[in-house]
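INFO  loader      accepted 1 record
INFO  loader      residues=196
INFO  predictor   begin
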Amino acid sequence: MKTIIVVTGLARCGSSLMMQMIHAGGYPISCHPGNEAISGEHNSQTETLKQIASGSANGKAVKSLDPLNFPLPPGNDYTFIWMERNYSQQADSMGKFLSALGIPVNRKGMRSLEASLPKDTDKSIKYLKRLGEVYRFSFEDCLLKTSVVIERICDIIPGLNASIMPSVIINRGVECYSGLLERELIEKEKQRRDKD
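INFO  predictor   done
INFO  writer      dumping tokens
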């Protein structure tokens, strides 16, 4: 059985960026048909869990968020890359994303959400450690200490092309991005394809 690399964390943690880095490094990605990790589209949690259960994710990287609410199928060889982010920035990003989906958010709800992130992180990591090795990375380090992060990823996943991995990182600050980066990445990828 080949190891499944699971990029995980709580919503808006930087998991898409980590998946893009791993993919750029040459590691196979298991995506829901029709979705492409490099374009910023999100895999369906249910489809990801089906791929793991069927064995089609063996030897690949998958993105599976919120492991307490979406438990992973037992009996697999897992290595986890846990992505985390400044909790305040993560909550802001969650609120912005919910608003973009038309879901109303209020200040009290956002404070409650931010307060829940450390506890949910601890519980999730405790659960994941029962299933495999857990390596913790921060979104901020991916942006600010890219070479250190890439070196660590290459230690976890040997054979990656480290020289290409930084190419997927957009030069930006660590604070919550003003737009929805996913939309911009999707549009950028569509424009690139139209030129080809």
